[in-house]
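Please go through this protein, sequence plus C-alpha cells, and consider how the sequence yields the C-alpha cells. Keep your notes short.
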Amino acid sequence: MSTETDALVDNERRKIEINNKHNDMEKILDRFLRYVAVDTKADPESETQPSAARELDLLKMLRDELVAMGVEATLDQWGYVMASIPSNCGKDVPAVGFIAHADTAPDAPGDNVKPQIIENYDGGEIPLKGVPGLSLKPSEFPELLNYKGQTIITTDGTTLLGADDKAGIAEIMNAVQYIVEHPEFKHGDIKIGFTPDEEIGRGVVKFDVEKFGAKYAYTMDGGQIGELEYENFNAAGATIRIQGCNVHPGTAKGKMKNAILIGMELNSLLPVEQKPEYTCGYEGFYHLISFSGEVESATFSYIIRDHDMDLYEKKKAYMQQCVDFINAKYGEGTATVEIKHQYYNMRKQVEPHYHIVEKAMKAIEMAGITPKVQPIRGGTDGANLSFMGLPCPNIFAGGHNFHGKMEYLPLQSMEKASEVILNIISLYAE
C-alpha cells in the first residue's frame, strides 16, 4: 500500500478504537450529570482565589477521580487541578494539554440543577418543567433542529445547566479514562488542567504554566459542535459609581441629585448599536450586566469587548468621556469609573504556532465533523494562557445558550468532543 493509503487505514482504525470506548467505561452523560449537580457558581464580588469555596467541591472531586484512575493529580491552594499521563509512544513529541473550568457563570442560579434528558428529540418545543409555560422553542432557537433524533440535555427553567464548562470537564475525563483503560492507545505526555473563576476573568491569574508542563494546550470551552477558535475579544470590566444627593421630594427643587436617573442618563450616552443584542462577528460591544442603587447612590457594572485592539482602547476611552461629561454637568465627583483589564485577543500568540490549529482541524474532520473556524464572542482561559507562553486554541464543548436558563447540550456533541481530544493526542504521537 502507498503511504497515503496506510495513513487512511490508520485513521480508520483509530476511529474504530475511539468509537468503541463507551463499551467498557462510565457513560459520558452519567459523568456530566454528576458534575452539574455540584454548585460551582463564581463570585465576582469576592477577592479570594477561588472566588467561592463551593468551587473546590468539584475540583476536589476531579482530583480524587483522576487519582482513582491511576493518574498523578494535584490540587493546589489556588484551586488548580493539574494531572499528567506519561508518554507511551517511545517518541520525542511535544506534551499537549487539555483544560476546562469548573466554575459556572454568576448570571443565573447554579445550585439545585435539575437536568431534563430528552431522548430522540422530535423537533418540537421542549417544556422546561420547573417554570410553567416556559419552553425551548425552535422558532426562537432554530439550532435545535440540527439535533432532531438526538438526545438533548436541558435545564428545568430554574437554573443554568452548567455545560459551560462541565461539558468540557466530562469530555476530558472521558478521554482520560479511555487512555488509562487502553494502554495500546499511543500518546505522548498528556497534561490535564481544571481551573476556577474563568467566568469572572480570573481563571488562570495564578496558573503555573511551567509546572503544568505542556508545550501546547487546548481549552474545551467552545459552543456548538465543530467550533474551533483561536481569536477572542479583548476584554475589560467597568464599574461606574454615581453619588447623588437625597432630600425630601417635597423640597427637592434645585437640591436633589437622583443617582439612579443620572446613571441611566450616562448609560444612554453609550452607542445603542454597540450593545450585544445588536452585534455579531467581529463587532464589539458595551454590556450593562447589573445595576443597583437608590437616590443617594447607584452602581452600574459593565463589560467592554472588542476583537480589534484599537477599537477596544477607544471603547474604554469613550466610557471615561461619558463619565467626564456627567461630572461637568452635575459636579465633580458625581460619577467615577474603575476599568479593569481582563484578557487580550489570543490570535497574536497562537498564529506563530498555527500547526496546533491545523491539528485540531484535522482531529475534528477525523471525527466526521466539518470544522467551524470563527472568532470567539467571549473569552476563555486559553486567551490568558496564550499570553503566558502556552498557545491554547479553543475547541467546542457542544452546548448552546450558555449562562442562562435556556441552556442545552446535545449528548452526541459531547461524545464527539471527547473523540476529538483523543484524535488530537494521537496526531501529536505520529
The first helix runs from residue 3 to 19. DSSP finds eleven helices and 17 strands in the chain.
